[in-house]
Structure formats: structure tokens, C-alpha cells
Write a structure and sequence with these properties.
Keywords: Membrane, Transmembrane, Transmembrane helix. With 297 residues, this protein is mostly helical. It has one domain. Helix content is 71%, strand content 0%. The protein is globular and about 70 Å long.
Amino acid sequence: MIEVDVFWSFSFGAVFAACSAGSISKNIAFQTPFWSAPSFVYTLLFLSLIFAPSGLYLLWDNPGWESMFVLGDKNEIHAILPTLFAFTNVLLGIIGYYVTYSKIRSLTLKRTQSKESLPMSYHKYWIHAYTCFCAILGMGYNRFMYPSDYVAWRAGLQYPLTDFFTSRILFTLLSMGVILLPAVYIPVYVWLKGTLIRPGDKSRLTLTCIFYILQGVSVVSTLFGAYIVRYHENDPKQTFIQNLWALFDNGNILSRDSKWSPLLGFWVAETAVMLLVYVPILFVPSIPTIAATHKSQ
């Protein structure tokens, strides 16, 4: 989707840089430019050969869904839109890579002086980008999971959410995932094996991810909750408890019509996406500590 691909592209570049921090640190030690790093070359190839074309295909195949039904027929789309769409899908990935690379470079130079292990705060860039991605996708779940085209959307037709799981758009996304997921998982796994080389590195990475995920979720949830409370109209004839109960839709917060349903959609999207992102990290072997090694012997 156009609205989320800007964050998705950034996160791809950032996650490729973050997971290849081990090799990037070596390049920095040899004072080689960032564009010569194998992970950066791969980032360019992935964005230009896989990610950008997939977005253009979805925009052409189903412009309503790809634009979250802001657009309709292909005749409504000016030629400049797909041009900018493809351009930003590559450019923002480069920016994501460079921002993360710059953070790794700064931490590496400090580590050279102090000889401490490299902090993993550079992972925050791709995590926060994914949180923005999930906020738009999850809060707009009615648009993301709409199983029909823009004609039905503009006509106001509603479908059960379960219809999405048998829709053509879902099977299109799954077909693309057959190519996209291995193209992401395999290099990330290989890079992580060369980055998580010290005892406890995998645990530190997991805790770092959890910290920044909770940080992002807390910020988004707080802002959304503040917005709901700000524009909630209290009934002066009701008690405080009754107004509070009305604020939470009298307990019907799981309904699609609830004012809180976008927040629930965000939580579901954040959980699902972060679990998918964590897959290659999960399979990276942990490096045992010296004590554990001696104990096993």
C-alpha cells in the first residue's frame, strides 16, 4: 500500500544495515565507503528488483486497494504517481540504510576507543519504522482487509473480515511473499550469524527489540487514547462511571464500529508483523557463554 510502503522501504534498508553490523564495523575499520558494503549493494538490488516492482504491480492490478481506496480506476492515476512511488520505494530504503549505517559507524568508533561491545541501539530505526507501518496498516484494517475493488468500496458495500482470507488480493500477496520473504530472511540470517558472535548477543538483541517495540506501541497507544478522550463528549446527566463506561463503548470495544477498534487493529498488526520480522533472529544459533561451555564439558 502506498501509505505504508514509505515506512516499509525505510525499514528494509535499516534492517539490512542493522543485521549486517558485524561486516559494516569491519568496513569502517578499513575506512571503506558505505556504498561498497555488500549489504548496501544487496539493499539496492532488493529494492530495485523486487520491492519497487511489486508495489507497482499492486498499484496497477488493484489501484483502489493499493492506495487504501484513496484512488480508484487506473484512469484516475497521473503518470507521475507510479513514477514517484517507485522512486521513493528505493530512495527511502537507501535513507534507512544510511541512517542506520551512520549510527553503527558512530558506535563503532566509540567502541574502538573504549573496547566495549557494540550497543544495539541502531536497531531502533527499523523497529520504529515498522511501528509506523503497523499503525497505518492496523488502524486502517477495514481498508487493508477489504476483499473487493474500489467500485464496491465507493458504493459503501461491507463484507465480513473473514472474506479477506479468501480474496484475490490475499492470494496475490501470498504469491509475492514466496519471492519476497526468502529474499529478506536468507541474507538477514547470514548477516546476523556474522554479527551475533559474542555470548549473550542474541539475548541482547531480543531484549533491545522488545524495548523499542514497547516504546513505539506505548507512544502510538497514548496518542490515540489522548485523541479519543479529547473528543469524547460527556453526558452531564450521567455519573463519572457511566461516562467512563460510555468512553469504552459500553464494553463493546471489540466491535468494528467501536472507536477503539483502530487501536486494537494496530496492536494485532504490530504483534503479527514483529513476529514475522523476528523469524530469522529466532533461528540464529546462540553463542554459549564460557561458563556454560565449561559446564557442558
